[in-house]
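subagent[fold] <- orchestrator: predict structure for attached chain, return tokens only, no commentary.
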Amino acid sequence: MTFIVGLTGGIGAGKSTVAELFVKRGVALVDTDAIAHELTGPQGAAMDTLVGAFGPGVQRADGGLDRVAMRRLVFTDPSAKTRLEHLLHPLIREESEARCAAATNAPYVLLAVPLLVETGSYRQRVNRVLVVDCDEVVQISRVMARSGLAASDVEAIMATQVSREERRMAADDLLSNDDGLTALAAQVDVLHEKYLFLARSKLHAGR
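subagent[fold] -> orchestrator:
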């Protein structure tokens, strides 16, 4: 049975950096964001359904999802966000489950879900919840640096997510990402050994 660690954290917390560190240690990564992009890319499995639900205006010339048009639609029609999630999330869930099950050569799986805490169903699918945490000022500055968004725009995105405190309370394990890559890697080493032990224990227990 596959041992699965659910990785999450607020925008700009450093989830991708943490995922890379675990992958370097031989862990299998299943990234729901990457799956979503595959499903909504050119020839993506979700595109026929999305075009049928929202019209051809949400499709780019190359066949992929026009994210700008979709964001505009969601902004003007609040129900569109719910419909989009109802169509897309089951496909993401099905594909992520298949990839987790297929990762038999890895010691355990890191399932990256940005909104894991917000999406309660994922909590039942993982053995541990790992939250990447950092100061909110650091979050904002990182997102501004990488995306060019204004601080107010980043804060607006953060407001749509659960609070830092709620995310910390949902965690089985916390990674602090305030002090740079060296400190982060040292924490990953400790957790990796812990997860290897837990994964072996789960395997031996036949659960």
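orchestrator: received. Logging for downstream: Residues 153 and 159 are 10 Å apart (CA to CA). The radius of gyration is 18 Å.
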